[in-house]
Write a structure and sequence with these properties.
The complex is a heterodimer of chains A (248) and B (202). Chain A has 248 residues and is of the alpha/beta class. Chain A is 19% helix and 33% strand. Chain A contains five helices and twelve strands. In chain A, strand 8, helix 3 and strand 9 form a beta-alpha-beta unit. Chain B has a single domain, classed as Oxidoreductase, molybdopterin-binding domain (Sulfite Oxidase, Chain A, domain 2), CATH 3.90.420. In chain B, 9% of the residues lie in helices and 32% in strands. Chain B is globular, with a radius of gyration of 18 Å. Classes of the chains: A alpha/beta (248), B mainly beta (202).
Amino acid sequence: MAGTAVRGRLTWQVSAVTALIDETASVKTIELQAPDWAGHLAGQHLDVRLTAEDGYRAERSYSIASAPGEPVALTVERLEDGEVSPYLTEELRPGDDLEIRGPVGGYFVWDGDDSVTPLMLIAGGSGVVPLRSILRHRSNLRSTVPVRLLYSARSLADVIYRDELDQEGAGVEVIYTLTRQQPQGWTGHRGRVDKSMLSEVAWPPDQQAIAYVCGPTPFVETVASSLVGLGYPAQRVKTERFGGIGGS
Amino acid sequence: MSPISRGFHGRRREPAEQSSRVPPGQYVTQDFPVLSAGPTPRTALDNWSFSIRQSGNTSKSWTWSELQDLPVEDVTADIHCVTRWSKLDTRWRAVSVDTLLAQVEHNARYVLAFCDGGYTTNLPLADVTAGQAWVAFDYDGEPLAPEHGGPARLLVPHLYFWKSAKWVRGLELLDKDEPGFWETYGYNMYGDPWREQRYAGD
């Protein structure tokens, strides 16, 4: 498992919120100006720290939504029982300071090498965030590596980055599956991702694709074991999980 | 000096009796979250063994049933994940690493735990001896579930939980410290939650 070693101390830095973008009813993208940011890879995450007037602090990790070279952006889903995500999605305003630290994580990344094999991106809900960084990176690099994104959302209204995904150009196939509610006349996939859907949608194993799977734990467990069952070598299935962590 | 987050009050204060048990930057969860870098490996118990290796050779290994025949301990411990959740009073059944190392002659100063799926993590020998580390196979009265590292995982509760390697298959004894999987990707070589050693250089 060769990897890019990330060395040197990561220090907290103060960024400024430049814009907040509504993605869905419960999801916002937060764009930041971070003068001391040393850059990141597609797929990495960062830590956010909030400090109350009495000194109380709360920290959480979020995937970075922007591509390498772009200003740092986070896309955050509000969790009803959360402590940090309701603040980020409802209280935060342009001009506010936000303390961040990162980037973190060097395994769930795509380094832009398009001499390699196709990418199979599989997202459950807001698990699409680090995959969006990969897609933007690919686009910025004018890479021709073929990509399929299988994106499971509750309904079309819950699809994050829908306009952007629908405008993806040649070489990128975006496949939605809607689990709870489908619009009238919906001809796409419905229901949860399972082995039979993956056998239809995922690159066949002989294409040597690399899979990036991000979503809640049961989603990732199902998808990763199904891909292995279809013949993907385990070391070509990279996973990132969220959810069930006590409410971020 | 951190800036005040305008309008942030926080609400997840730990009760006083818990706060002394919760390291800085952590919050208590009742769930048992799952984090791993790849698919969950599944190894049949018939094919399972636990090995201690030195200089590329296996010094000693135990089959599943041989491991079960060793003295088993009930362990109750607080665990702390680098992703900031802590879980208090988790209950395990496990064999002490002391019991395993007692059957091997060595002068090692470090260990590298190795696992199904290729995961590794490094620890000083002093942190896996003296009743501080176990090979655990029951959690909360049930066989350890595969997504939580079953059939067996390392349990080193005084360090961040990525050091408690899932799907553990053995320990390699080393003279020098070598980074494992997450340590190669920027996580701390030691991982003391009380000093918030999350990332390299912390």
